Automatic annotation (TrEMBL):
Source organism superkingdom: Bacteria
Active-site residue list: E163, E374
Protein name listed in UniProt: Beta-glucosidase
GO cellular component: cytosol
Length: 469
């Protein structure tokens, strides 16, 4: 079987991780510009000041993408590049940059797939409480409208937010992302709710503009499975799914929060501050949302937790996806299992978990349109005789694309696959050491670009529409 004609083969990036030019051409400060410079927060103090200089080299990069045969490029817009202080004047030079990038994609027939928010919040908004402050909702909707009006004639695929769970949980529970708060549970749930409201309002605004494209949100897809059949572990896994998947997917796709979590939060005194109007808005939005994007890297293996934990403080290493963490409410913990395979950073490699998870989603949400908006392998790629031999990445992507194919056969409504990442870029907490790209960036040699083995492999997959997979 070949992948259907309307299935998009793509690859992704995010503004802070590739652009650089952090203070150029009128760009305002983002929370990451500030946070990454606090000692100890990132691997070896790395930051996105220069990143891989995509801001200046996007023409070269897009040309390489075209050569690879990429059908779509998922990138994000930096909010403080468009509106430097978050909710004031528009920076025309920021608009020019993205116009250039979008036009460059279109020149080669590459479909721009644009994320509005991939974590770089204008610092001025962070200082006023970030996502816990309802003013941020209105500022976001205004920013989204500016982008729709400036780019919507050419951009027909919009993602509002990337991975709400990550920037909220790491921002308010583990402290590994800005604003760096630890165990601020009430703020965590308030922030998630405000993001869902911002999403719903942005979708509403987009539909009012009648630009006839599609709009959705991207979530982490991290399905939880019990380590065995013991009842207490099965309950733990279900609890994990409710809190880490359904809490995020239900308000978007069903228009209401899962009752199980709502009741549990009430008992814990953690009900978010919400109004009837906001809850109604979420209800109304459920039918307007066009798709959901899934970022899948690994499942989680879960067991019941009996340790009493007062404060869940995690170091950078533990916040970066490695199992071995206790949930914020001490109900369950994630574990590594002996019979599983892991990457160098301790992430499980599990195409099976991907398929089982997709079936779980279909069961709960029906035929909603899906895109895989991120999937890939973080590795240190060997260089042999000047060739970047990233065979494990090829194997990883191959196995996951096979799952995508199988899922389509089973009737799961999957419309595209975006590998993470198109080019080696800055990993938020792991610096440049953890590579994901099809294109290598030589940090010792003027950030020169070079094609990896996977570049040629993916090109062939796209050309043959995955027939041999
Ligand atoms: C996702 C983010 C990406 C990217 C990826 C890999 O959560 O959306 O921006 O960073 O994870 O993560 P890491 O760089 O930690 O390996």
């Amino acid at each position: 079987m070949k992948f259907p004609k309307d299935f998009l083969f793509g690859a992704a990036s995010a503004a802070y991780q590739v652009e650089g030019a952090w203070d150029k051409d009128g760009k305002g400060l983002s929370n990451w510009d500030i946070f990454s410079k606090i000692p100890g927060k990132t691997f070896e103090g790395t930051n996105g000041d220069i990143a891989v200089d995509h801001y200046n080299r996007y023409k070269e990069d897009v040309k390489l993408m075209a050569e690879m045969g990429l059908e779509s490029y998922r990138f994000s817009i930096s909010w403080p590049r468009i509106i430097p202080d978050g909710n004031g004047k528009i920076n025309e030079m920021g608009i020019d940059f993205y116009n250039g990038l979008i036009d460059e994609c279109l020149k080669y027939g590459i479909v721009p797939f644009v994320t509005l928010y991939h974590w770089d919040l204008p610092q001025s908004l962070e200082e006023k409480g970030g996502w816990t402050n309802k003013e941020t909702i209105e500022a976001f909707v205004n920013y989204a409208e500016v982008c729709f009006k400036a780019f919507g004639d050419r951009v027909k695929h919009w993602i509002t937010f990337n991975e709400t769970i990550m920037f909220c949980k790491l921002g308010y529970i583990t402290g590994a992302h800005p604003p760096g708060k630890i165990n601020a549970q009430k703020e965590y749930f308030d922030a998630t709710h405000n993001v869902f409201v911002a999403h719903a309002k942005a979708v509403k605004k987009y539909k009012e503009l009648k630009q006839y494209g599609e709009i959705g949100i991207t979530h982490v897809f991290n399905p939880a499975f019990s380590v065995d059949d013991k009842e207490e572990n099965l309950i733990a896994a279900s609890h994990a799914n409710y809190y880490e998947t359904f809490w995020y997917y239900d308000p978007i796709l069903k228009g209401e929060y899962p009752e199980y979590v709502v009741n549990d939060l009430k008992n814990k005194g953690l009900t978010p501050y919400w109004t009837d109007d906001e809850l109604q808005l979420l209800k109304d939005n459920a039918e307007k949302n066009d798709f959901i994007g899934l970022n899948y890297y690994q499942p989680q293996r879960v067991e019941n937790n009996t340790e009493v934990v007062k404060i869940i403080e995690m170091d950078r290493e533990k916040s970066t996806g490695r199992p071995g963490n206790i949930s914020f409410d001490s109900v369950y913990k994630t574990v590594m299992m002996e019979d599983k395979t892991y990457t160098k950073w301790g992430w499980e490699i599990s195409p099976e978990g991907f398929l089982d998870g997709l079936r779980m989603l279909k069961e709960r949400y029906g035929d909603i349109k899906l895109y895989i908006t991120e999937n890939g392998l973080g590795d240190e790629d060997p260089i042999i005789d000047d060739v970047i031999v990233d065979v494990p990445r090829i194997k990883y992507i191959e196995a996951h694309l096979k799952v995508v194919k199988e899922a389509i056969k089973e009737g799961i409504n999957l419309k595209g696959y975006f590998a993470w990442s198109v080019i080696d870029l800055l990993s938020w907490l792991n610096g440049f050491k953890k590579q994901y790209g099809f294109i290598y960036v030589d940090h010792k040699n003027n950030l020169n670009r070079k094609k990896k083995l996977s570049f040629h492999w993916y090109k062939k997959i796209i050309e043959t529409r995955g027939e041999e997979l």
